[in-house]
């Protein structure tokens, strides 16, 4: 849509001083000359003062702006957050040039500006009317970036209704643009509200219904940082169910998630489990993504980890990255890529020639090693090549693997026992997983404890070897196989693998609730208590076991373990058994902050005002932490505002203020929404919002 104009050599100092009806030296009328200069400045966007001067002069002359220039001004005022002027030019275009095709990027940016200033209904109307078809006059990336920004602003309002409606209007375009951006809003909304469980549920729904995995790396990183191993496994499992994805590609995302959270050794372990050449395609895409985001440092770290896994098509990935840097004339990154990988493998002749030309074109010194191949001491190799494997090693390993395939557990055990430590460590983790599975089937897993070289390898890699099996046994309710694993591994390895969660889930799914409770009762004073938050919740749902579970929670207090009693208390609250909840807190100290999300999830899901008020009353009696109180008041406030209960909401705010609870930090968007609603109904607004900007002058 951008138009090209002839350049005007006249000094810009003469612009404003030109007479109204005079022509410049190119024979252009003054107004046309001014319009052309304004258009040029709007394209450059460097001199805001000059843009305003030109516009003032044009307004003085009473000149109508052509639609193309109006579109440029609309974009300019959106970028400078001037809602008044953006609205003026948008409405001018709709009224005076209804047939003019407006670039969807500008429409979406205008809607984003409306959301920024809490004009939610206007924004929704704009998107619904104007975005039935998406007109992209620039690059697709630019359009997707605008959509992503729009969704992000909507999420930050905390208004789920706005998020859902926006997504509904734009979702029909998802297949056309083949981007996960259209599926991200609700996952991001739940993450923004710190409701991780709902985020996972929404993520799973997208995978199941649309075969896309929105925000998968964000979810993986959140699990890694919070050390939620069971949830991490769940996200990987959900991602792996995508057709065309497969578990290997999910592991590619996991590798980058580990890297981005500073866990390089874990990233390397995952990378070494990527066994197929076709994995390289997705890894290459992730490398390109990092490069496009100008995250060169992370790209180089990621590349080192890729290159450490010699079974991948690392040469192709590096060669294609060098080609990309050449396309963008980025010699610095190209040289960094070369220095990062030159000790690991040989670049193709075409790639070396390309790099040589790129450096030469930018008048940079070409390393001698690009043309020759001397070994340099400057770069420390990331990957140390293995010693040549002799024939006997190959024979021993191949025989071991053959016995596994033939499901001859006894012979496989004997071969493993006779292996040297170096041979054992050359086995792949997936091979060891298959071997362990065979031993469990044959009830021979405990035999592994006598093979020291194998046990040291297994304990070191317990996560990678056992978690696929734990997941399988847990989902099938096979608690007996899990007990075999529990008898083999030391407690610290079991904890690292989230073993308790898997075993508890197996008991629950096999409907062996009482067996699980017996195990918990036997272990109440042990270091590994087998306690699982989710399992305790499930046990409390059984009326016939409730008293025993409650008594067990009280016994745990003797070990200074107070989470179980808090789960019992939260269960009473969510089931509106307030009398029992009161009795419990009178006798015991309840750490409500440890279970508040359990109660608040029920409040939000049911939109239960009564439960929300009861919970506030309970935590006020407990003298809970301020953040816990803030979440309780804020959650109820959200529901009241969404239900249009504005008078009740203002009373709730007054109550919170009376207890010195500040809701603005985390519930600002809800307060703004309430303020707008009260003003619309011409009611008094009995609270203030600091530093608010609901309008801006032109």
UniProtKB/TrEMBL annotation:
Alphabetical list of InterPro entries matching this protein: LRP130 (IPR033490), TPR-like_helical_dom_sf (IPR011990)
Q: Which GO terms describe its cellular component?
A: mitochondrion; nucleus
The GO terms describing molecular function are: mRNA 3'-UTR binding
One Gene Ontology term of the biological-process aspect is: regulation of mitochondrial translation
Q: Which domain of life is it from?
A: Eukaryota
PANTHER family reported in the protein's UniProt record: LEUCINE-RICH PPR MOTIF-CONTAINING PROTEIN, MITOCHONDRIAL
Q: Return the protein name.
A: Uncharacterized protein
Q: What is the lineage of its organism?
A: Eukaryota, Metazoa, Ecdysozoa, Arthropoda, Chelicerata
């Amino acid at each position: 849509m951008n138009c090209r104009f002839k350049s005007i050599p006249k000094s810009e100092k003469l612009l404003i001083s030109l007479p109204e009806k005079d022509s410049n030296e190119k024979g252009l009328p003054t107004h046309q000359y001014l319009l052309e200069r304004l258009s040029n400045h709007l394209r450059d966007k460097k001199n805001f003062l000059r843009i305003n001067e030109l516009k003032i002069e044009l307004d003085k002359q009473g000149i109508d702006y052509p639609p193309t220039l109006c579109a440029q001004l609309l974009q300019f005022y959106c970028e400078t957050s001037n809602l008044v002027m953006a609205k003026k030019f948008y409405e001018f275009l709709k009224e005076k040039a209804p047939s003019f095709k407006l670039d969807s990027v500008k429409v979406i940016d205008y809607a984003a500006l409306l959301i920024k200033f809490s004009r939610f209904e206007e924004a929704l109307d704009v998107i619904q009317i104007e975005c039935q078809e998406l007109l992209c006059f620039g690059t697709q990336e630019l359009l997707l970036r605008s959509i992503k920004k729009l969704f992000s602003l909507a999420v930050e309002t905390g208004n789920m209704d706005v998020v859902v409606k926006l997504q509904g209007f734009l979702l029909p375009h998802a297949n056309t643009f083949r981007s996960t951006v259209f599926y991200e809003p609700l996952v991001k909304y739940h993450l923004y509200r710190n409701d991780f469980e709902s985020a996972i549920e929404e993520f799973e729904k997208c995978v199941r219904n649309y075969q896309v995995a929105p925000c998968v790396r964000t979810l993986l990183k959140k699990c890694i940082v919070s050390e939620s191993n069971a949830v991490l496994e769940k996200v990987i499992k959900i991602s792996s169910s995508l057709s065309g994805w497969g578990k290997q590609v999910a592991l590619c995302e996991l590798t980058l998630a580990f890297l981005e959270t500073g866990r390089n050794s874990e990233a390397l372990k995952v990378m070494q489990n990527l066994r197929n050449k076709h994995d390289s395609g997705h890894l290459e895409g992730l490398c390109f993504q990092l490069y496009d985001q100008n995250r060169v440092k992370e790209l180089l770290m990621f590349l080192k980890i890729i290159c450490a896994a010699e079974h991948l098509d690392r040469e192709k990935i590096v060669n294609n990255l060098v080609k990309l840097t050449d396309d963008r004339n980025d010699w610095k990154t190209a040289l960094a890529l070369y220095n990062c990988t030159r000790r690991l493998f040989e670049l193709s002749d075409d790639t070396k020639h390309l790099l040589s030309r790129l450096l030469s074109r930018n008048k940079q010194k070409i390393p001698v090693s690009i043309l020759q191949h001397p070994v340099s001491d400057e770069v420390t190799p990331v990957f140390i090549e293995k010693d040549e494997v002799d024939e006997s090693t190959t024979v021993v390993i191949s025989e071991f693997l053959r016995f596994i395939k033939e499901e001859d557990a006894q012979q496989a055990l004997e071969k493993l026992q006779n292996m040297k430590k170096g041979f054992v460590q050359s086995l792949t983790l997936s091979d060891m997983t298959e071997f362990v599975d065979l031993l469990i089937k044959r009830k021979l897993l405990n035999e592994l404890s006598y093979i020291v070289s194998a046990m040291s390898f297994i304990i070191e890699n317990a996560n990678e070897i056992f978690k696929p099996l734990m997941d399988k046994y847990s989902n099938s309710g096979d608690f007996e196989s899990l007990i075999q694993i529990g008898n083999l591994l030391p407690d610290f390895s079991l904890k690292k693998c989230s073993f308790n969660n898997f075993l508890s889930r197996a008991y629950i799914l096999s409907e062996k609730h009482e067996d699980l409770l017996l195990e918990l009762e036997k272990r109440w004073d042990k270091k590994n208590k087998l306690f699982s938050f989710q399992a305790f919740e499930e046990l409390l749902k059984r009326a016939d076991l409730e008293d025993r579970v409650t008594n067990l929670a009280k016994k745990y207090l003797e070990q200074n373990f107070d989470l179980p009693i808090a789960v019992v208390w939260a269960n009473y609250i969510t089931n509106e058994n307030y009398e029992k909840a009161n009795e419990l807190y009178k006798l015991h100290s309840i750490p409500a902050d440890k279970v508040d999300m359990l109660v608040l999830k029920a409040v939000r899901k049911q939109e239960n005002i009564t439960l929300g008020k009861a919970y506030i009353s309970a935590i006020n009696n407990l003298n809970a932490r301020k953040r816990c109180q803030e979440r309780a008041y804020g959650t109820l406030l959200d529901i009241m505002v969404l239900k249009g209960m504005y008078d009740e909401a203002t009373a709730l705010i007054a109550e919170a203020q009376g207890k010195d609870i500040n809701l603005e930090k985390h519930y600002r968007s809800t307060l703004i929404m309430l303020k707008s609603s009260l003003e619309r109904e011409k009611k008094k607004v009995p609270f203030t919002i600091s530093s608010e900007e609901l309008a801006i002058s032109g």
